[in-house]
């Protein structure tokens, strides 16, 4: 795979659209009543016919949606800083706090895999076949055991720190106080967008090809049996999609994430839902609708 068809991805830290809701307990019934908060300042700039407007409408009022889109653009000749900014912002959207950290769940496996490959290449050593198999399993079927073995064997926090430095990820940090809880690594909407747009330039071409090739072969179900056909891998997915999925329950919240490269765009969809209000099927439907709008 060569630089996604020979085109360079603009480095864009983009678009965050937020919907916040509150759950109130009904005094007369055991069912939670959801009162949606519709912040006019966030919704107004984007009519429902735009990708952002459609994503907000499709996602619905329950939960928090954070979505990022960075266009893949043809190489441009060098110009001024203003020229670069104009090219980078074309076709992108930004709403809300792009630096708000959220737990990555299994998305951190992509950072971990790139860091391990880069470290071995810098050292001039070949990774053992069993570790290459673990990387493939961590990215295709989101295998937690494979990721845990890699995290321990290669010092996950140190690998993550190296990735953060090389890709200039501003909001990504290893979990504390338990550095072994890799799923609790924090990241922001801007960081996976930056990572994916810069991957062809910062990683060795063979490593970038290995990573994106694995993401393009994501299995229908995760190693734990969770159905991975949601978000960018949901209904109507593009044949050219390379995506990493993430799911987790932590501190009363469901996290359902989908990031990747879809045709000529980098798309990041991060979603959070209160466990006592939204079940997995409803969360999947909301993420599917948002991803479909952003990927169309």
UniProtKB/TrEMBL annotation:
Residues 115-271 form the Beta-lactamase class A catalytic domain. GO terms for molecular function: hydrolase activity. This is Class A beta-lactamase-related serine hydrolase. InterPro entries: Beta-lactam/transpept-like, Beta-lactam_cat. Residues 1-28 form the signal peptide. The lineage of its organism: Bacteria, Bacillati, Actinomycetota, Actinomycetes, Geodermatophilales. It comes from the Bacteria. It comes from Klenkia terrae. Keywords: Hydrolase, Signal. The keyword Signal applies.
